[in-house]
Amino acid sequence: MASEVEPTEEPAAPHPDAAPTRVIVVGGGIAGLVMARELALGNVRVILLEASDRLGGTVTHHSVGGILLDAGAESFANRGGTVAALATDLGLASEIEQPRPAGAWLWAAGIARPLPATSVLGIPASPLAQDVIDVIGMRGALRAFLGDALLPATVGAKEATLGGLVRRRMGTRLLEGLVTPVAGGVHSLHPDSLDLDRVAPGLRTALQREGSLARAVGSLRAAAPAGSAVSGIRGGIHRLVDELAADLERFGVDVRLGARATRIEPGSVTVDGEVLEGSVVVAAPGLVGNPLEGRRVVLATLVVDVPALDAAPRGSGVLVAADPNGASNGTVSSGVRARALTHATAKWHWLAERTGGAHVLRLSYDGDADIPDLADQARADAAALLGTDIPPSAVRDFARVEWIRAAPSAAAVDGITMVGEAVAGTGLASIIGHAQAQAAVLLGGDPG
């Protein structure tokens, strides 16, 4: 029997720029958490699916020698104020801390030297400065200076990667001697795999404006606010995850742990046999588009009792330049196999307060290196890099953590929003900023 009251007009179609009514976010790492929070703030119903039993992804913690430490990122770039703004929104403004001004060192050919004072990711503003010559030699410094000074600004200006730009303008010796260890220590990738505009925003424009790469670096350094390029959070960067999770609970986000998506397509996600419908955001690399690719990184953490380290003999840590003769046995430089060392208790005042005089040393290694006894190798590497004897009896505790650093990916699937390291680039500033921008797009606003 027909209804006695017929509708007089069809319901209006939703505006194409209107925010979705429900979004399924797949992946509970930092990108997924930020995306879910931004959407919830925009009054969107959100379901967050995380395959593991915890949130945060690589932003997590572990206990070593009875000390709670970051097991992933231990600092964030101040670039753009993105991470600090989020931390402030989460109630952590008073907990943001600057590193001690000890500076970092570079280990090359068995010799440790302070890093050049004025640079961007190892690119010097003064290629003929003595601290640059000390690292790459006069020949390398002259090549960098003359090549960059004599080339027109258009040379290298269209290079896609950091490595491509530096190689074209300043040569391979400077690239491998300075930029590779610095950029690798920050991003865990070779400069040839780092998107220039992601890791050094503004550098390309400054090159075209200033006419040389060195002057471009100098102008960026002069324009940067005083203070460190990075900051930390008292207690550890992992506190961001705790506060984000608390906000999601407060905002009514449906967070499901142990929920592995078995099918993802535009408009729906299947998990545990249930089909969830809504707009889809993927914050877990390798689930759609290209399979997960990346570089395996191993972090070795030592807690040691060595009073000689109280003087912070190598500042906040040491970056290691590659040894071209060491590739066959995994050696990076002159017997050292680590890629970098962070003297965490020399870098962070808050951490030094909590260790009872012990020192926290964190070393990074290529995941494909064959190292039978990582604890002993890490101790030997730390002793060499810091120029200080560290006997086995001085080691209070050791921990090993392994991560996959997602390689940059251009994978895209129509109707699915992608966030996270593979599309945003490395570093919390890039990942968080990209997630916030994509959330703004979904909400129908300006991504900024």
Element layout with pairings:
Blueprint: E1 22-26, H1 30-41, E2 45-50, E3 61-64, E4 67-70, E5 76-77, H2 82-89, E6 96-97, E7 104-108, E8 111-114, E9 119-120, E10 123-124, H3 130-150, H4 162-170, H5 172-187, H6 196-199, H7 203-210, H8 213-223, E11 230-233, H9 239-250, E12 254-257, E13 261-265, E14 268-271, E15 274-277, E16 279-282, E17 294-304, E18 317-320, E19 340-343, H10 344-347, H11 349-354, E20 359-366, H12 374-386, E21 395-406, E22 416-418, H13 421-424, H14 428-442
Parallel strand pairs: 1-2, 1-16, 2-12, 7-18, 16-22
Antiparallel strand pairs: 3-4, 5-11, 6-11, 7-8, 9-10, 13-14, 14-15, 17-20, 17-21, 18-19, 19-20
Helix pairs in contact: 1-9, 1-14, 3-5, 4-5, 7-8
Quickly count the helices: 14
| CATH A-level architecture of the largest domain | 3-Layer(bba) Sandwich
How much strand content do the residues show? 15-25%
What is the CATH C level class of the largest domain, in words? Alpha Beta
How many domain units? 3
Derived structural class:
alpha+beta
Estimated helix fraction: 25-40%
How confident overall, as mean pLDDT? Answer: 88
CATH topology of the largest domain: FAD/NAD(P)-binding domain
Distance between the termini: 54 Å
- DSSP summary, beta strand count: 22
Strand order of the largest sheet: 8-7-18-19-20-17-21
Cα-based radius of gyration, to the nearest Å: 24 Å
Account of the protein in words:
The protein is α+β, with helices and mostly antiparallel strands and 448 residues long. The protein is 32% helix and 23% strand. The protein folds into three domains: 22-97 and 233-292 and 407-442, FAD/NAD(P)-binding domain, CATH 3.50.50; 119-225, protoporphyrinogen ix oxidase, domain 3 (Orthogonal Bundle); 294-406, Polyamine Oxidase, Chain A, domain 2. The protein has helices at residues 30-41, 82-89, 130-150, 162-170, 172-187, 196-199, 203-210, 213-223, 239-250, 344-347, 349-354, 374-386, 421-424, 428-442; strands at residues 22-26, 45-50, 61-64, 67-70, 76-77, 96-97, 104-108, 111-114, 119-120, 123-124, 230-233, 254-257, 261-265, 268-271, 274-277, 279-282, 294-304, 317-320, 340-343, 359-366, 395-406, 416-418. Strands 8-7-18-19-20-17-21 form a seven-stranded mixed sheet, sandwiched between helices. Helix 1 packs parallel to helix 14, helix 3 (130-150) crosses helix 5 (172-187) and helix 4 (162-170) packs antiparallel against helix 5. The longest helix has 21 residues, at 130-150. It is globular and about 65 Å long. The N and C termini lie far apart (54 Å). The relative contact order is 0.19.
